[in-house]
Amino acid sequence: MAGPSEVLSVADLAATIPSDPRRRFLLGIAGPPGAGKSTLSERLRAELGGAGRSTVVSPMDGYHLSNDVLRSRGALARKGEPDTFDAAGFVTDLRKLRAAAIGEPVPWPLFDRAIDEPTEGGVIVRDEQIVLVEGNYLLLTDAEASGWAGVRGLLDACWYLDAPREVLSERLLHRHAVGGRTPDQARVKVADSDLRNADLVAASRHRADQVLTAVGAGYCLG
Question: Which overall architecture, per CATH, does domain 7-221 show?
Fold first, then answer.
């Protein structure tokens, strides 16, 4: 990649992702909630697909525990924190994805924001040579949050997408408002949960292969 502080386009970033028809390449895109990981992943998928490189996005969010399970544990208000995900299931499915030959189907759950629940087999990874695995906690160790340490070793590379704290807050407040929370409820969720998660994730950023920040239509390195 280019040097620190240089701004690259999505096409520039896509061109750095290796291509080997004999094996699947798993690229992690980590970062705090609200940083724009889903947007970057979809832009990369479109760019790579347009260049004839089959790509799929496999988000971590499909491994949210169901609302019923969280409610039974008294953890629904903390939804989105590391222990409110099925980290073991995520690692297990990453191993399947890592081991599966291209062409072998691997079901992957997605998260439906309309119903605020995961959906089983939301996407089937089959012929895609590049998998973009995006999520908050890809770079954590078990010392930081139990169950996540197995993720990093299953990824070929992992990028960290950063954003200023005020940008995260603004985006998260909007997300929760769209999801049906009142302004007061949204502020409490952002302050008491989301930004604490962001601080935890930020402590893992040094383990990334590259750190990116969105700048206009491109991404600044370093």
Answer: 3-Layer(aba) Sandwich (3.40)
Q: Where are the domains of the chain?
A: 7-221
Amino acid making up residue 32: P
Q: Which DSSP string do the residues of 113-152 spell out, in sequence order?
A: TTTTEEEEEEEEE-S-SEEEEE-TTTT--TTTSTT-TTSG
Q: What predicted TM-score, i.e. pTM, was given to this entire model?
A: 0.91
Exposed/middle/buried for residue 202 (C-beta within 10 Å: 0-12, 13-18, 19+): middle
Q: Are 131 and 176 in contact (CB under 8 A)?
A: no
The 10s digit of each residue's pLDDT in 81-138 is 999 999 999 999 999 999 999 999 999 999 998 888 999 989 999 999 999 999 999 9
CA separation (Å) from 164 to 30, 170, 190? 15, 10, 14
Token representation of residue 216: 């206009």
Cβ partners under 8 Å of residue 63, min gap 6:
85, 86, 87, 89, 90, 109, 118
